[in-house]
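sanity check this:
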Amino acid sequence: MPPRAHRLAASLSAGLTVGILTILTQASFATLLYTGPLAPWMGLGFLMILSGAVVIGLVLTLAGSHPGTVGRPHELPIVILALLGTRLVRQLPATHSQADPFTTVLVMIAGTTFLFGLLSLLMGMGRAGNLFRFLPYPVLGGFVAGSGMLLAKGGLTVMLSSEGVAWNLPMLLQAASLPLWLPGVAFGLAMFLATRLWRSWLTIPAFLVLGLVVFHGALALSGTELTQAREAGLLPAQELPLSPADLAARWPDFHRIGWGSLGRMMPDMLSVAFIASLGTLMNASAIEATIGRELDFNRDLKAVGLANLLAACVGSPAGFHSLSATALPQHMGVRGRSAGLISALLCLVALLGGQGLVNQIPYAITGGLLLFLGLSLLGNWLVDQRVFLSATEYSILLAILLVMLAAGWMAAIIFGLILAVALFTFDYSRISAIRLILTGRTRRSNVDRDDAKTKVLERYGDAILILCLQGHLFFGTAHGLLRTIGQHLQSRDHRNPHWVLIDMKRGSGIDASAINTLSRIRQLCDSYSVELILTAPSQQILHALRKANVLGGIHEGIDWFEDLDHGLEYCENELLAFHASTLPQEHHGIDSLLEAFTPAEQAARDRLLRYLKHQEWPPGSIIIQQGSPPVGLHFILTGRVSVERRNRPDEQPVRLRTMDPGTCIGEISFYLRRETTASVIAQTRVCALSLDDADLARLEDQDPAAAILLHKIVSRRLGERLILTNELAFNLSS
């Protein structure tokens, strides 16, 4: 067969298979929704559901982010709508005696579909598609498994629909009831086991066709007429009108609606819309994993919203992506929109010419199919997903399932949402708000100081405690920050901090409880005569802390700084001032710049000084321009310089380092012979000893010993800087 003909045959086969499954599934949904007192309207309801399958299928196939998406009215909202419909019909005689049950239930179904469509459309337009990803997995699993349980119970209800009453265990064991439900249960269980043993796309269609053939063949062999089968409760009890003409002729009377009862059910309808939203994003996520590509959730939500707004106009229940119907063409090697379009067109053909279709399908097939769908959901979450869930998560899933069994689906939703919030709070509070704990000994400001000051910072740097925060600081994580600071302040060793820096650069926000905690931290620090400093707080956090009197000044300085670097520089200056008596008087002289330890090195240093030129720059001068060729080495005698870098000429410069007397600048580009990567600007009047390329070449040629001493001095300074950087990297990674 030519490749094109093969693709056409595969697309036709996949589309017809999906379409037949959709029609049979919607017939099962019709028997579930329109049972008991609503049974006379089952045919009309089936037409409306089938119309919804056409609308939802076409819109999602044409407008979804994945061309192979197949959509249809889904069992997740339908099983809950069936419960609501039964409850509504029971309430109407007492509250609205003149109300038409079918019309009222139809408005409830269409209203729920409309609410779901509107919610999906607004979520898609607001780009909120990823919000439902935050729902804990076991809570989501509890909802879906509970829906599977309700769907399985709904299958039994469909099989026993001729009884017209709620079933119970004694009723099931009666001899007259066994022929009604036993074949359907056997059919559903057999199909469930078969799909787990043979994971082929042919398994379900083969079972459905086989079931229909066996049923009608058994009737023919036994000589049982269809009328007798209907009277026995094996088939729908009467011929049901299924043509579009009948649909127009029997359109419900909207003047007989129990509006009061519908108003009281509005919370339930909104809950169904919420559950359908969960199902949409859950199925979309599962389709992502099946097809191996990412979907655009926001686009799909808009498509689902439009589809359901249109489906509400024809009285259809809510629908969205069908995982099984979308995955089946993929397994058959069919790509593109052909399978979804053929399926929707087949549903349209059944809608236009399917006279007598639904009343030819036995309850054992429709009820067994519902039982199979429910067991599949239960098996997936209670068995297949067990290996992915911890004992706690699995217990949560079972708890939601038991609540749904004992108290109903509405109680299970409320319980599940409470669990979701509790789980989120508990799990998030276990994540420490403190990303890093450092001290001034291991984390320095970007200020290069002379050897004497550096040694003071190395010795006494633990007096500066640095806590780098992460995430949102709220009531669940703020207390951990207070406890950590308290432990450091109450320690009895030499490492008691005198400054506490809280860096909020990676903090995403703060709540009222955390503000109160920061106020308590301020009081705790004051009681120990420790200075509390915040760095990199956002404007929102600054405003909140000023209102709570945690911060005093409007402008940065003392109690808050724009970034950690400037806050550290302030603490280091305070620490150096406190230990000023330990610093030598001439700590920034020639001896500090060009150290010599042996008599030979002393002599070499004296000769080296002859090659160094004395230079001065006024404040604001550019000593080294970013992007310029190497200009030489500069040993700073007095003054302070700032090293700044611009990524683009129009951007504000970023301070990389500040360098005090006793430091060297320009050594990297000087040795690598590359363009300078940053600018060096004089903050004050700067005096330095300089050496350019020509003088270095002359030094190396005329006095190798002095040149070796120069290289030794520079390499030692680079090594010290590298050691400090490595120590910081180690602390950041631990």
Remarks:
- The first strand starts at residue 71 and ends at 73.
